[in-house]
Structure formats: structure tokens, C-alpha cells
Amino acid sequence: ATPLSVMVSTGRAAQMGVLIRSAEALELSGHVNAVVLDKTGTITAGRPSLTDVLPLGAWRSNTDGLLALAAGAEHDSEHPLAAAIVAEAEQRGLAPGDSQREAFQVHAGLGVTCTVDGHAVAVGNTDLIDRLDVGMPSVGNEDLDDIIADMERLSEQGKTPMLAAVDGELAGIIAVADTVKPDSAQAIDALRSHGITVTMLTGDNETTASAVARQVGVDHVIAGVRPENKADEIARLQAQGYTVAMVGDGINDAPALARADVGFAIGTGTDVAIQSADVTLMSGSLMGLVHEIDLAHAALRNIG
Ligand code: ADP
Ligand code: MG
């Protein structure tokens, strides 16, 4: 039978919007000594907005033209980065929804490709551009070192820079930035003062991830992780003897949430994440995780 103290703690958690699926999940939470946090949508609000468009080559004098094609390509993507690009294009009156779109393809953890108004468009990270065999612009005198330096500078500001390619040539850099949730730093600080190791796990690049990690006080960062490899990082910590809690919001996080000793889904996240988790943080605040761990400790003390 479920100990009364576990039922009491589960009830208290529910009152705080922390839904615990099983007594076992609560008990395991009391033994957690490593917490792994997804970045986008978990530590940050997950509603990034566009900050920079740096057009290249023939697009130097046509920023809006480039943005319209990029937003057309991203129109049918569900990724928060895509939403930021589409929202900015709409705000500039570029009507990406009216574009002619064909062969839209999502490349998980990389970006998207789509034929937009007859142009082959790609938007994504450097790995996507590498795979697509994209060349330098044939117009103008662009320098690859300058492009790389621009991306590095944007990353150091905590922004996520993406590359856009049109018809097989680099066409620009598009950067978006997300804000950290108001109490992420407080929650991470509380976890660390409980002696819990806190790690950020993200598909985003190392420099951007480190900039965000500094803002919230996370000391371990695992960046550039492909969606299919997130669960492996959890297993690696478990192999080192840690009892691991993972918090995430995306479809990408579902296997890692299932792999963790206790999986926590952000309530505003995707259904797949919620279904794969043991606990749902309804408000989306990481303080819910801290309260749940505190309640788990209280329940364990009472069980003795
Ligand atoms: P996270 O773990 O931060 O949620 P993802 O695994 O979803 O990140 O994506 C990793 C990286 O792949 C992003 O930082 C971005 O560079 C690129 N990417 C993913 N989806 C898109 C998209 N729709 N448009 C552009 N770039 C994308
Ligand atoms: Mg996420």
C-alpha cells in the first residue's frame, strides 16, 4: 500500500500545480542527485523573437526579400525558432502564409528545407548547411571567416544564429533570442544548495548554451546534442551512479524523459513530453521541481 506520507506529499504537490503520476516517482525524487535541464522552453520561456537579419551576397540590399523566403520555409514548422522568424515576417507585412510552398521538410535538430515561390530555401544550423552542399554567394565579395565571426559574436550574446541558403548559396544569417524564465536562476540555485548537480542539455550550439548557462548559474553544459542522443546523456550520468531527474518540454526530450529516473514535463510543453514524464510542472516554473524534491524528502523522512 502507498504510505500515507507519500499520499500527503502528492496531494500538496498537486495543490502547487505539480502533478505526480506515481508513488514511485515521488520516492525516487527524494534520491535525485543530478538534474538535467533542457534549455529552450525549460530554462528559457521558449518564445524566442528575431533579433538580427544579416543578408549576404545578392540579398545585401534586400533584407525583407530574404526574410520572406526564410519565413515561407519555416511557415509549417512547429519549432519555436521558426515561430520567431514567421512572426517577424508577418509584423513586417511580408505575408509568409501566402507564399507558394512545396517539398517542406523538417530536419530534426538541424533546421528546415522548402521550395518557396520557386526558390530552394534552407534555414538551420551549420550542420544542415554542410549536409546540403551550399556554396558561398556568387554575387559580392563575401568572406567565410567574416560570416563565422558574425555567428560567433551573436552566440556570445546568448542568441541562436541560423544560416539561410537560397538556391544553393548562402544568403544570410538570422538570429533569434529567448529570455530566461524569471525564476530559473532561483530554482537552479536551490537545487545546487541541495547538493544536486545541475546540467543543461541542448541541441543549440556550445557558445549560445554557455551564455545562457552563465545567466542562470548552471555549471555543466552539454550542447549540440542531436534529439536522438539526449537519452544517451541521461544514461551516461546513470552509469556514473547518479539518480537523474530530467526536465523538458519538447518532442525531442521525450526519450530522455522516459530514460531518466524521474522525468518532469513542462505543462505548457508538447503532449508527447507530458506522456513520457512521471511529473508535470503545470505552471512551467522550475521552482515546481524544487518543491517536489522537498516534498519527496519530507515523505521519505516520515517513512523513516
Ligand atoms: P533545443 O534542444 O534547444 O530545443 P533542437 O534540437 O530543437 O534544440 O534544435 C537544435 C538546433 O537546430 C537549433 O539550435 C537550430 O540551430 C537548429 N534548428 C532546429 N530546428 C530549426 C528550425 N525549424 N529552423 C532553423 N533552425 C532549426
Ligand atoms: Mg525545449
TrEMBL record:
It is found in: Cell membrane. It comes from the Bacteria. Belongs to the cation transport ATPase (P-type) (TC 3.A.3) family. Type IB subfamily. This is P-type Cu(+) transporter.
